[in-house]
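ugh ok fine here u go
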Amino acid sequence: MKTTKLIHTFCVLFLGLFLSGQTIQAQNTRMVQVANVIVRINPQKANQIDYSTNGGRTWMSRYSGSSCGEFIDLVHYNNELIAITTKGIYYSTNSGRTWMSRYTGTSCGKFLSLMNNGKELLAQTDKGLYYSTNSGRTWMRR
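structure:
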């Protein structure tokens, strides 16, 4: 059973890197490649963003604070990092060093996950699938 889970985790990581070249997801830790840096939500502190410059061997804190709430999901889209947090959708233009609020509406429901499909930003919410063509400023139901 442990071997099967390990193989599954490896396959998810490999396919995420191979197919998208952008996003890796495994064991509820979201990581995103931005240039030569990997950025992730800290698995122990949900209000912290970490980064690695050596392929994930070591991690350093890039952002820690309560103004955004806790980070839930993270995606790279249109040269920005976009995050679901407990306070709404936030974005960073400097690889996660600082974060600004982008969307705090409630009409879409609770945001659960984000995905960049190459043309638009997709969000799974507790009310269904939504999409945005303007980096998460407005959302339409799919």
